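REQUEST FORM: STRUCTURE PREDICTION
Request ID: SP-0412
Submitted by: Lab K.M.
Chain count: 1
Length (residues): 384
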Amino acid sequence: MEDFSFLLTVAIVILSTKFLGEASEKVHMPQVVGALIAGVILGPSVLGLVSETDFLAKSAEIGVIILMFIAGLDTDLKEIKKNAFSFVVIALCGVLIPLIGGFGCYYFFFHVDAANTSEVLKAVFMGVILTATSVSITVEALREMGKLNGPVGNAILGAAVLDDIIGIIILTLVTSMKDPSISIATVFIKIGLYIVAMGILAFILTRIRNKVDKLKEKRRISIYAIALVLAVSYASEEFFGIADITGAYMVGVILSTFNVRSDIAKKMTVPSYLFFSPIFFASIGIKTELNGMTTSLLIFSVLLLVVAILSKIIGCGLGAKICGYSADEAFHIGIGMVSRGEVALIVAQKGYSIGLLSGDLFSPIVLVVIITTIITPILLKKLM
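STATUS: Completed
RESULT:
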């Protein structure tokens, strides 16, 4: 007899994430925090009502693909071109310092053997997770203070976009190297071919831009868009060994300058909000086993949190200072980039799925995401 219990599981997940998401909003926190907590409560750490299943895992994967596609659609290429140099410097420093910090934190705490390539890659991946930036809560805090369109707000937004692009490239490189049979040269060749393929895709879509834009406000445009996103995501993994979320993000970036962008984003947000995103964020919480949090892991969590906060403040702040921002502005930019949010969770999920991140290390990462998301707007409001 067919088992229909997955329907009840989905209902419980959606309702709990919505309820706790709204509770988070009431205390001026993003809904993602509530969704994470819902997953932790439902999972084996607390109530044990929900466990990870193949259906939830695949739904979560589609959820993360849609999230990254929407993130690509929200990319402001004009703003990046306008202040490209400053944003690139801030983003590079904001990636390099956390990457080194996360690597060092894992490498020295777990006494990694330098000869063990697999463990070294895991240490590098911990750094990759810390390179992520989620500025949604920062944007809201700056908007409330009327400083979103100022030099600090623009720098945070521009650098955050490039930060994620650089982070995705590093993620792709590290995940490709997970397979020991693949040489570094092969990885770079595949990345080169992938860039060419994305260029060809961008060229084709640009050539038919007028036809695409004529479909504005037509319901079928969102169907074409999601089909393209899923196909490119599949091709990224299957033919190039590159993360599916990279393909989804790149399609979003290509379409970000089209007139139909807002219509596609609006339609894509609905299934994401109603179904896929709650399952994705809850699935992260479900994987988190707080009851397995040993003293050693708790100490590692605290160290990782300190590194996560300081590395962004120092890295992005240093980059901003190099580009001529005042000391206060540089410090505020660094603070604004501290929040990791859903981006770090997306990266962590990818690492977990290919064996670069063990299940017991989800707890420290979730704690880092929640705490950095909470303290970022508080610090900005106090300092600015």
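NOTES: The radius of gyration is 20 Å.
Reviewed by: T.R.
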